[in-house]
Structure prediction request, 269 residues.
Amino acid sequence: MMGPSHALSGAAVWLAGSFAVEQFTDYEQSALAIAVGTAVCAGGALFPDLDLSGKVTKNEGGATVARTFGVFSLFIAEVVEKVSLGVYTATRLSKDPVRRNGHRTLTHTIPFTLLVGWGTTSLCNAYGKWAVIPILFFMIGLALRGLFDEWAKRAGWVWVTVISLGAAWLTYLNLPGNQSYPMIGLAVGVGSFVHILGDMITRAGVPILWPIPIKRRMWTMVGLPKSIAIKTGSKAETVVMRAVLTGLAVLATIGLVAPSVLREFNIEV
Prediction:
């Protein structure tokens, strides 16, 4: 899937999940908490594609996420790609093909999803609001780059960086102190997992079963049959899927912040 679709899926899933949790458990979130969680989950849904690097010196290429902060994020993507390739090479079995890049390997696995979710939670737990600032800065930047792709291209990475920093700082000023902010770590983990599910419905698939060896393959790509799999960039993704995700996000948002509107349409909340 393309970057905007990944980001939109993360936002839609977090909003729908928040609405479902509120209905079934009476757990209510403030408007700020909902906004932060949605942005972080949207950014987290782009995070696994940091394993697709470009050309750092020319500030080009790479996945959507790799171009978020210009050469800085491209450099990070280069490091992640090389680490992913190294893990793939070190753990591949006899029937795993030789690869020259690490895209759709380590960062597209369940262990990685658990690691980033746990790691984010641990940082917030250890350092509180001071850990929140860089995490929000990075995730909000990814969300902006994904959700507003065309605008981000025109505005450039400098404006994305400035707006992300401002949003992170304003959020920091309004967050309560002396908390571990576990929802931020959860949002990053959920977003990363949503990314994996999104790539599973494409033709290439993802190694979601790693590190379970199957028939002398450690990196078995799992996905839908090619006859029904979605082609990346096709109208099925850019039109149909995005329309469904947008509708889901809008309905969930209305249900969270304005349930009276749903009641006008005789929808129980």
